[in-house]
Design a protein that fits this description.
about 260 residues, alpha/beta, Rossmann fold, 2 domains, 7-stranded mixed sheet, two-stranded antiparallel ribbon, AB_hydrolase_fold
Length: about 260
C-alpha cells in the first residue's frame, strides 16, 4: 500500500488545471496559504503535508523518493493525470524530484528558493533548540517559546516552529513533525541525488529571495543540466521566506509562471 499523505483539496472547477503546493522543512500544509487562496480562484489546488510533517505519517526514513511516491499516489487518488507543482525549500526539492521521476505527472514546476544541489548541514541550531524544549513541563505555546529562545533568537523562526506544536488527546504537548526521524535522516534532506540520466524539459520557474543564498550563481549549471527550460526570477529585498516577506510579488510571479505554462 502506498504512502497516504495528509492533504486538503480546494476544488474550483472540474475543468480547471490542478496545482499542488508543498511546504518546506518543519512546516505543514498551512504554510503556503498565502499562495493557495489566490490560486484557488483559478485552479483546483491540493495542499499536502510531507512525510514526517503535519498530520502525514511518520516514516522509517525520510527521503525525497518517498515524497514522490506520496505525491504520485495522491494524484492517482483523484484521477489527476498531471498537475502544476509549486514547492518552497524542501518542498521545492520534492517538487523537482517528482518532475524528474514522474515527468508525465507534472504540467510545470515552480521552485521557491532552493536548488537541486547538495547543501552543507545548516539546521543543527534548530534541531538543538527543538530538542532542548522539555515538552513534559510545557503548559502553553508561550512556555515552549521561552524554552526555544535559548537557541533561536529570531521570533519569526520560533513562531513558525510553534505552529507545529499541539496537544494530543491526553492533553500532552507534542511536535507534529517527526523531530527524531528528520534529524537522523537529515542527509536525505540536505542532499539532492538526481536520478541518473533524467531531465525534465517542461516549464520550470525558479524564484529566488534576493538576499537568500539558497540559489547561487554556481548552481546554474546543475539547474540547466536537469531543467533545460528553466527561467529564474528574483524577489528583491527578501530572504528564504520570500512568500511571507513579499506575498503579493510572489503570488504574481507564481501566477504568471502557471499562466505561461498553460499557454505553452
Amino acid at each position: 500500500m502506498s504512502l497516504q499523505l495528509h492533504h486538503q483539496v480546494f476544488k474550483q472547477d472540474k475543468d480547471a488545471p490542478w496545482v499542488v503546493l508543498i511546504h518546506g522543512l518543519f512546516g505543514n500544509l498551512d504554510n503556503l496559504t498565502v499562495l493557495r487562496k489566490p490560486l484557488a480562484e483559478q485552479y483546483n489546488v491540493i495542499t499536502i503535508d510531507l512525510p514526517d510533517h503535519g498530520e502525514s505519517p511518520h516514516v522509517d526514513a525520510f527521503s525525497l523518493s518517498l515524497c514522490v511516491e506520496g505525491i504520485s499516489a495522491l494524484l492517482d487518488t483523484y484521477d489527476i493525470a498531471a498537475a502544476h507543482i509549486v514547492g518552497h525549500s524542501l518542498g521545492g526539492k520534492a517538487a523537482m524530484m517528482t518532475a524528474l521521476m514522474k515527468p508525465e505527472k507534472v504540467l510545470s514546476l515552480v521552485v521557491l528558493d532552493i536548488s537541486p544541489v547538495n547543501y552543507p548541514p545548516h539546521h543543527q541550531t534548530i534541531f538543538a533548540a527543538l530538542k532542548h524544549v522539555d515538552l513534559s513541563v510545557v503548559t502553553s505555546r508561550k512556555d515552549a517559546d521561552q524554552q526555544l529562545q535559548a537557541g533561536i533568537q529570531e521570533a519569526g523562526v520560533r513562531q513558525f516552529l510553534l505552529k507545529s506544536l499541539y496537544q494530543n488527546d491526553a492533553g500532552d504537548w507534542q511536535w507534529r513533525f517527526n523531530l527524531t526521524g528528520l534529524e537522523s535522516n537529515y542527509t536525505n534532506i540536505s542532499r539532492f541525488e538526481a536520478p541518473a540520466g533524467r531531465q525534465y524539459s517542461g516549464n520550470v520557474t525558479f524564484i529566488k529571495g534576493g538576499n537568500s543564498d539558497y540559489i547561487k550563481r554556481e548552481h546554474q549549471a546543475d539547474i540547466a543540466a536537469l531543467f533545460p527550460n528553466a527561467k529564474a526570477r528574483i524577489v528583491e529585498g527578501t530572504g528564504h521566506w520570500l512568500h511571507a516577506e513579499k506575498p503579493q510579488v510572489v503570488v504574481n510571479l507564481v501566477s504568471r509562471a502557471l499562466q505561461s505554462a498553460n499557454q505553452g
